[in-house]
User: What shape does this take?
Amino acid sequence: MQKKRKWLYSGTFDPFTTGHLDIAVRAAKKCDQLVIAVLEKPDYKTVFSTEERYEMVLLATASYDNIEVIKFDGLLADTYYKVSADAIVRGLRNGIDLDYEIPMATINQKLNQDIETIFLISRSELSHISSSNVRELGRLGENFLDMVPECNLTQVKKKFVKLRQDKL
Assistant: This one.
């Protein structure tokens, strides 16, 4: 019996974008199971709660049978072992992402030489999409320029309307 390939895709996903979804779907096509891990306690304050971010990822990936969504805290290397992953998958939009991701992949490999990181290059039409760009657009208005999966758009808009009202 052939071993099933399980990949791990992690992030803060604040919020989950169409770029994140594209990487997840493409990765899921290349492995038997993709585990998307939503970081519970990032080092900075998120706009969306852990539960909101988790729910957005669940909703956006609900139609994919081989995608599982979990929450995690701590080292990604520890989660890698907890879920019995074979590789970590990361999306790259540009050289800045590469400069950030290579040291992280190196650290994970130093934690255990069996950890592999697979990089998927963003599609050119999605390379401008980032959670920080979505947050900036949300602070200024309601046009998210197709950067948020349609299934999450109402939730994202409501959140930013509330945040803008709270500032008044």
User: Anything to note?
Assistant: The first strand starts at residue 6 and ends at 11.
